[in-house]
Design a protein that fits this description.
The protein is an alpha/beta fold. The chain is built from 8 helices and 6 strands; from the N terminus they run E-H-E-E-E-E-H-E-H-H-H-H-H-H. It has helices at residues 15-19, 60-65, 85-93, 104-107, 117-123, 128-137, 150-156, 169-189; strands spanning 8-12, 25-31, 34-43, 49-50, 55-59, 70-75. The termini are far apart.
Amino acid sequence: MIRIDADIDIDVADRDKFLSKINHVVARIDREDGYEKHNTGVYFQDIPRNPLDNIATIDHRDAEDLGYFKVDFLNVHFYKDIKSEEHLDSLLDKEPMWELLQHEEFVSKLFHINNHFELVNKLKPTSVEELAMILAIIRPSKSHLKNKEWNAIKKEVWLEPRDGYFFKRSHAFSYAMAIVAQMNLLTEKYS
């Protein structure tokens, strides 16, 4: 098999509805006390699987080493309110009202940062780049930056760590743009 070294995440409004329409095998995570299904990962290859639960019989990390390619499908529920590609473009092209991020009730509705109001309120992002950095520092390998100021965060946030889960810059910017779209969608809804 050919090894594909890539991390593919696809955002959908309803992953279960989407996956019900295509043939796939659910990725597996081995734990000390057994295994469980991967929250987001699936395979479109003919990977060995348990026919009773359609879960791969190989842990996703081992499967990658064997050349199997996992694709993660993530629920981004606010996409259901996007009317068209043009509507999405208009939400992305509009500068959001950054000051809304200082209101806990508003932040609680936002994808990925809804449980991080204290950090968002402390750093008060005013750009997509700053929002992306917040997304990066809420991951374990960059959490030591939470108590730093922007200048210190900017110097270190995109450096790849030796270990631990982290967001690559491209991931963080993509999700920051999704949050911008959601912010603008929410203000559009309440205008």
